[in-house]
Amino acid sequence: MVRSQAAAPLIDRMMTPADYSLSRPCPLGRISRFDYETTVAIVGFGAAGACAAIAAADAGARVMLFEAGSHSGGSIALEGGGGEIYLGGGGGSPQQRHAGFEDRTEDFHRYLLMAGGPDADEAKVRLYAGNALAHFDWLIAQGVEYTDAYVADHGLMPLNEECLGWTGSEEAWPFVQAARPAPRGHKPRHGGWNSGKYLMDVLTRQVHARGVDVRFGARALALIVDEDQRVHGLVVQADGKPCFVRASNGVILCTGGFIRNREMVQHHAPRLLRANRPIGALDDGSGIRLGMSVGASAIGMSEGFVTLPWYPPESLVRGILVNERGQRFINEDCYHGRVAQFILDQLGDRVWLLQDVETYAPGLLHESAGIGIAATCDSWEEVERKLDLPGGTLVATIDIYNRHAARGLDPLFHKTGRWLKPLDKPPFTVLDCSVDRAQYSAFTLGGLATLASGEVLTEDHEVIAGLFAAGRATCGLPRWGKGYSSGMSIADCTFFGRQAGQRAAT
Ligand SMILES: Cc1cc2nc3c(=O)[nH]c(=O)nc-3n(C[C@H](O)[C@H](O)[C@H](O)COP(=O)(O)OP(=O)(O)OC[C@H]3O[C@@H](n4cnc5c(N)ncnc54)[C@H](O)[C@@H]3O)c2cc1C
């Protein structure tokens, strides 16, 4: 908290960046002169920061954007950044309707609520569910191109010029019971696997076209606050020196999550340490720490997105996953991110994906994900011995699964009939998905508590004047690893980035 400033000396401008701390705000009264004056200052030039800047500029504000790196893009512009956005409702996007899906807003709303888990943010879900199609039109108006092509296969996302695909657990139990399913992952036309870079290039052009003053190599070091805790600006490191920025309407933190800050992960989300491949641009939690330094509440901090791309091809979904007790633990037709969460919940690291000759096909990403073949055997007894499982456990699991699957049922985990087939045709292939061997990717979902407008909240649910946040620096629409669906983060960053930009500007 800020101490009384009455007797504090003015800040010596020869102080170095090391004299500032993310967790200690800089008192306004100690700054004799500002280096920059603007209406809105944004920190971070990823998806959230770009959309906040465009919206703030469109609302008439003078905007400065500070990015620690040397270029725009953030996490989604990294290699493999899909640029996929999760949207629907309103009867369906043109792509959904073209593919024959009517996606009612109430179904989209119910799915988002369930995907948000026990602490879903109803206000954010309601706002997004009712406005996702208008947001899609906004992205298109910025110049992002989408085709009408739909991919029916259960995959990670459309790979080429196709746009629409199934990227969540919509058709799987228990989600299918809550909401009528529809495919909602919308990927831009260009860029293939790397369409995130394309998306960010389009948004970057729009930021520059609006005359936003962008500073690269400028890292935020501390917030500037008055005695009432109102945020007036920030201290940034530029050219090795601290610079003082006054932002008359406020600061928007769009700095991403904290998966690369090992100390923070250890403290808030130790379970995510089991995922051995952190993904994200900087993701050092600096924005979250800046917010907390002025009394912001950080929520959902233990949650993260985790994945192991064990499918496609979709035939692999017809196999089963077992733990080191030889037991199943989930309906395997769920989204890969939900499955990975359940894998992390198992006691022990060993997990295998079992296939018979009719379901097995080499996985598209198995090599890069470190999923190897552990065994190929002619009987399940032999598999059980090879994996050194307690006698009879795997054989019993297979027996129960096969007996019910033959009748199109899965009474234990409710896998849907389309994916059920007795695994009874040798040779049997065992794929090693063990947590200590395969590559589990992860990023964090917890962050600053915000209103749907982007205003940052204290633990008492009070707005901190002059402070806004969006994207993975916040706990947003996606906040429960077991409900995450591909495209939800970009939906959250771009849509709520716009809300924050607009609110800060006006
Ligand atoms: C390979 C990959 C594929 C993905 N695919 C998808 C997908 O298809 N769909 C989807 O929804 N999500 C996807 N995600 C997740 C999604 O990309 C991210 O969650 C999202 O882009 C986060 O955006 P952001 O703007 O909040 O933060 P970021 O993109 O992380 O941007 C934050 C920016 O702030 C800067 N910064 C941080 N701290 C400071 C500081 N102190 N001062 C100044 N600048 C700072 C960083 O350098 C960075 O440029 C993917 C992630 C990865 C890594």
User: What molecules are bound to this protein?
Assistant: flavin-adenine dinucleotide
According to CATH, the fold-level topology of the domain at 309-432 is: Flavocytochrome C3, Chain A, domain 1
The chain-level structural class is alpha/beta
Strand content: 15-25%
* CATH secondary-structure class of the domain at 309-432: Alpha Beta
Low-confidence stretches: 1-7
Shape: elongated
Distance between the termini: 27 Å
Which second-level CATH architecture of the domain at 309-432 applies?
Alpha-Beta Complex
How many H/I helices? 12
Radius of gyration: 24 Å
What is the mean pLDDT?
Answer: 95
> So, the CATH homologous superfamily of the domain at 309-432?
Succinate dehydrogenase/fumarate reductase flavoprotein, catalytic domain
Main sheet, how many strands, which sense, barrel? 9 strands, mixed
Percent helix range: 25-40%
Quantity of strands, as a count: 21
